[in-house]
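hey can u check if this looks right to u? its 529 residues, i copy pasted from the old doc so theres a chance i mangled smth
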Amino acid sequence: MKLMPDRPIRGLLRGADIRSDLALSCEVCVVGSGPGGSVVAARLADRGVDVILLEEGGYHVRTEFDQQEATAFPALYQEHGNRATDDLSIAILQGRGVGGGTLVNWTTSFRTPETTLEHWRREFGLAEMTTANLNPHWEEIEKRLNIHEVTLDEVNENNRVLWDGGRKLGIGVELLKRNVESCLQTGSCGLGCPSNAKRSMFLTYLPDAAEKGARVLANCRVSRLVKSAAGDRSRIATAEAEVLDESTDRPTGRRVVVTAKHFVVAGGAINSAALLLRSQLPDPHERLGKRLFLHPVVATTATFARRIDPFYGAPQSVASHHFIERPGRVGFFLEAPPLRPMLAAIALSGFGGDHREGMTRLSHTNALIALHRDGFLPDDEGGTVRVKGDGGRRLSIGYPLSPALFEAMRESMKAMARIQFAAGATEVQTGHLPRLALKSEREISRIDDAPLGPNRIGLFTAHQMGGCAAGSDPKRSVVSGELVHHQVENLRVIDGSVFPTSLGVNPQESVMGLASWAAQKLLHAFRGA
């Protein structure tokens, strides 16, 4: 094992480097540097396209990742880690910075399931989104990012609970693929990798793009896209950004204006929709900000006599998709998340002495999560993104919790409890308020009687999708099958916001593959113009 070398982004400008207003021009302006924007920028720059990429977050490197949650959450997460739905019922963990979510995700890498792609083709007319079309892009990405399956001896005790308990019960489990090289198993993926083992965008595709001439600007929050001066609502002329102070994250008063022939919005779900809403782009069918999906997460924690130490080792190395296909009901899949102290303090239910007791058992605690595949039932429209006040800087995020989702949550919690008891747990706790503690498998049926509702059960999301849904019908979607805005001809949205449903798997690699494919489409259109 070794520390992977730093790889600076050539010519990158941070907020402190921008001392006055800037007026820049390029062929393609990309907004956002996560798995979508970075791959697009690299693909275009490699073919000689003049690219400027604007990122609202800061540029952070290995030496800044001190493995402390108090440092990482304010620096590397949206709204300092406090983003949530309006009613505070769902906590939203979403990365922010040069590299976007790849800075802080837990490295789990899946291709988009064929069942999901087939659903999109049938229900949304996305005829070209096929495994055959996307496979070449995923193959290149997997090679570039060293995505590979873990071995069983790399599975930590926390993930071993899912592996052992699932196998004992005959529940299908699988070893996961991770985008790492020479991983030191620190368990700090969600806080920024301290050894550069994680093949994040700021170490891979962004330096690739910069070495081919792309210009990358950090601490530049795009406030709006501006239509052409002639009033042509079918084209964007400029992107206007405000420069943020690196230490306070507040506007400095300086501005960057980028003029381009084509624009790619890749701010991620929630942020991309918010930008288009602030820009007051045409939305004749009121689809913008709709169909937001979150893979809503419930957790169960379990106490073991043996040490689990859920804060060490690869955060995720085992999953189960045994329950993903539940005809007529919401499917779900299972994973084992890391539990570092601050995240554990948020996740564990209870108050006062009850909560304190739970924290004292952290080294003997396992956590399992169920991620629910929303958007697949005919009446499941997901949530909404809206902007309000202060020029649209404040967001309104709504997500209704349906009876179908509650049914799936009860079933997923019972499945996780069975797995944890099968693996040797002495007690299983749910996220209900008040906390529900189960002493044996015989008590699992108590989950059916525990109340569910907003703020009656702990809910989280680390996977945000939708808000700018793709589809062949403009009455039901924001962008076309080639991810071109239905009403604005030189605007594409290329990130997880275009997914018309959730995925049923962790989204990182799906976003990258789709971005590579869409960049190829843009190149064809660009060179053909």
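The mean pLDDT is 95.
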